[in-house]
Amino acid sequence: MMSHTFKSIAVGAMLLAAGAANADIKVFTDKYDYRGAVTVSGLDSFNDLSVDPIDGPLSRSAGSFNYTATVGPGSTSFWGGSGSSVDGWLTTDNRTDTIVFKDFGGKVNGAGLFAFGSNSAGAYAAANSITLTAKDEFGKLATYTIDKPTQSSFIGFVSTGKLLELTVKLTAQAGVWPTVNDLYLSSVVAVPEPGTYAMLLAGLGIAGVAARRRHNAQ
Predict the structure, then answer these.
(1) What gap in Å lies between CA 170 and CA 10, rounded to an integer?
(2) Is 148 helix (H, G, I), strand (E, B) or coil?
(3) Are 43 and 83 contacting, i.e. CB atoms less than 8 angstroms apart?
């Protein structure tokens, strides 16, 4: 039978390995690289939005993943934008406001979207830069700034823990509003990296030595 000492040290080793694995947010600048790093994704295309004011917060879904979108602090309202009659976007009422995606339902490890600028009519407009920040359950932050974003500027974040929020903020610029399109929310089936396995095996080895010493002492 496994001794209490062996059990305690073995569990400690596994927790240490898990803690080491849960400490990173990776950034992807290509949609296909992002999609390849996750196992299940849902999409909110925003195609149901018209170019009109929309009271926030919004309760929406990306596939099977629910989420909340908020905006502020200048206004609590969104606007719909559009690249065409069939491609809807989500933008803000106040050009200096920040878009926040949060309250993700389920184990959301990844979030990615297209981020750029639009004008007062909801059509694409050249922006100087736009910054996205992701935060996970371990308090880790990852920030990425896109210079001269276009409609094809994609940023995705994938964490080894659950994501808590994703924020989008445009550098203050007259005549340009922060705008997003095609929000992907995703989950990942965690597979321990080789370093994690090594730490686990080392911990179990120490546990084995301690158990043998205790047995010999008896």
Answers:
(1) 48
(2) coil
(3) no
